């Protein structure tokens, strides 16, 4: 399984292809609410190319990471608002 890595998503392990886009693996895992707007509305990827900032999640304690620009790495800890 050298071509896969395990990351943590909201405290749960998730095995994904190494180097996969984080936004893609989160969507494939069934997560639809990546973050919330200031009014509490669900937000998720829109542009898929780093422009809209709707796909932000917390990665390794760093908030506001654009998941559509983030590649999955071993041991990565991801938190969403799902
Ligand atoms: S989906 Fe638009 S910045 Fe990530």
Structure description:
- The structure is a single chain.
- With 82 residues, this protein is mainly beta.
- The protein has one domain (4-79): Beta-grasp domain (Ubiquitin-like (UB roll), Roll), CATH 3.10.20.
- Helices cover 9% and strands 34% of the residues.
- It is built from one helix and seven strands.
- The protein has one helix at residues 22-28; strands spanning 4-9, 12-17, 35-36, 42-43, 56-59, 62-66, 77-79.
- A five-stranded mixed beta sheet has the order 2-1-7-5-6, with helices on one face. It has a two-stranded antiparallel ribbon with strand order 3-4.
- A hairpin with a 5-residue loop joins β3 (35-36) and β4.
- The protein is globular and about 40 Å long.
- The termini are far apart.
- FE2/S2 (inorganic) cluster binds next to loops.
- FE2/S2 (inorganic) cluster is lined by residues 45-48, 50-55, 66, 68.
Write the layout of secondary structure elements.
Elements: E1 4-9, E2 12-17, H1 22-28, E3 35-36, E4 42-43, E5 56-59, E6 62-66, E7 77-79
Parallel strand pairs: 1-7
Antiparallel strand pairs: 1-2, 3-4, 5-6, 5-7
The structure holds FE2/S2 (inorganic) cluster.
The site of FE2/S2 (inorganic) cluster has 12 residues, from loops.
């Amino acid at each position: 399984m050298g071509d896969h890595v395990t990351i943590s998503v909201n405290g749960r392990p998730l095995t994904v292809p190494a180097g996969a886009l984080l936004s893609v693996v989160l969507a494939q895992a069934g997560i639809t609410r990546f973050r919330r707007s200031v009014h509490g509305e669900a937000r998720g990827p829109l542009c898929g190319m780093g422009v809209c900032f709707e796909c932000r999640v917390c990665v390794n304690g760093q908030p506001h990471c654009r998941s559509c620009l983030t590649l999955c790495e071993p041991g990565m800890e991801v938190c969403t608002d799902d």
